[in-house]
Specification:
The chain is of the alpha+beta class and about 170 residues long. The protein contains 5 helices and 11 strands, in the order αββαββαββαββββαβ.
Length: about 170
């Protein structure tokens, strides 16, 4: 009887203690690489994403004024919080890097406290590199007007290519 109980306990432990599943591999060109303090990867210690993978994440559309666009502009993309959950991020700071190697340090709380998105589309059209794409970190100025200031403008990186999660 004791052997059956131990075997059952071992089976349950194996069932509930499975390692985290790896992310699917991208099938289209990679547009974003996440490194650092993450648990879920799909490419040599990193998590890489193509456009369809990013589009599959929970997101939002926000229509707002920004310092970089004229008038009301609609931005659509995955929530930064959803992306961090997808990769199992466990840090306090993000180093967000653009194609031209400009980078900004962003507290993880900007993802958890606000509906910050990585915009993939502007006014319903995919964002090209010329138009701040492929990814643009957009704060929810429409939901939180108090964020409309230099502090958050400096964290609003466009042409994002990589995010490093720092503990």
């Amino acid at each position: 009887m004791r052997a059956k109980v131990l075997a059952s306990a071992a089976a349950l432990a194996m069932l509930f203690c499975q390692p985290a599943l790896a992310l699917d591999a991208p099938t289209d060109p990679v547009i974003l690489t996440i490194t650092g303090a993450i648990t879920d990867t799909n490419s040599d210690g990193a998590a890489v994403f193509d456009l369809p993978m990013l589009q599959d994440l929970p997101g939002r559309t926000g229509t707002m004024e920004t310092p970089w666009t004229e008038g009301e502009t609609a931005f659509d993309g995955p929530l930064l919080r959803a992306l961090l959950e997808e990769v199992g991020a466990h840090g306090k700071t993000l180093r967000v890097t653009a194609l031209n190697d400009y980078s900004a340090e962003v507290p993880v709380s900007d993802a958890t406290d606000y509906e910050t998105i990585l915009a993939l589309a502007m006014n319903g059209k995919p964002m090209s590199i010329r138009d701040k794409g492929p990814l643009f970190m957009v704060y929810p100025f429409d939901l939180n007007p108090e964020l409309y200031n230099e502090k958050y403008f400096s964290r609003s990186v466009w042409q994002i290519k990589a995010i490093e999660v720092i503990e």
